[in-house]
Automatic annotation (TrEMBL):
DNA-binding region: 139-238
GO biological process: positive regulation of DNA-templated transcription
Domain Response regulatory: 14-127
Domain of life: Bacteria
The protein's name in its UniProt record: Transcriptional regulatory protein KdpE
Protein location: Cytoplasm
Signal peptide location: none
PANTHER family: KDP OPERON TRANSCRIPTIONAL REGULATORY PROTEIN KDPE, REGULATOR OF RPOS
Record organism: Streptomyces pactum
Any GO molecular function: cis-regulatory region sequence-specific DNA binding
Amino acid sequence: MPSLTGSEPRTPTRVLVIDDEPQIVRALVINLKARHYEVDAAHDGATALQLAAARQPDVVVLDLGLPDMDGVEVIRGLRGWTRVPILVLSARHSSDEKVEALDAGADDYVTKPFGMDELLARLRAAVRRAEPVPGGEDGVVVDTPGFTVDLAAKKVHRGGKDVRLTPTEWHLLEVLVRNTGRLVGQKQLLQEVWGPSYGTETNYLRVYMAQLRRKLEADPAHPRHFITEPGMGYRFEK
């Protein structure tokens, strides 16, 4: 496997690897531990859900083809109680299957076979999206008639209750809110939220904009706040 230097996390990050292929688990454990990650591994969905609850990982690497349940069920099980970043690792290549995993709450999708360097880069990006922004703009609160976005606290309130967003949903919302009233291009959004190597995965944007609309719009089918500019990008309006 290629080596990666100068990119170790500053503090130990706990990774939960969920895959039933021993050689892939072994390769991931070796490479992650060499970069000072703490690693737990599970070979089936039931064990994975138990380990996640017990060990509270900072990021999950999940294969969809598990022996006891589909990986999408694991994603839904995790999303019932945690916002932990989930990086899907799968041999399934179809767009529909990728969208299904993203729609269930995954943060990114890597197809097998994969390069270890690319996987680790995407894992680091997923962890970064879940971290607080240092030196954030304290006190920046954006009010709309239906919900409130607190950029400093990384929280959204609707109807007097917190709205649970995944790290990727929050990052997308944050980029749009910080550019209120301005068109943000598809490529810019992809690169700001997922990283510089992204620029053409527009299905990611469609899935996550649909998620934000379902969670925050009064009428998701006729959005007032999250506006699509066909073929160009998206705009947030208060």
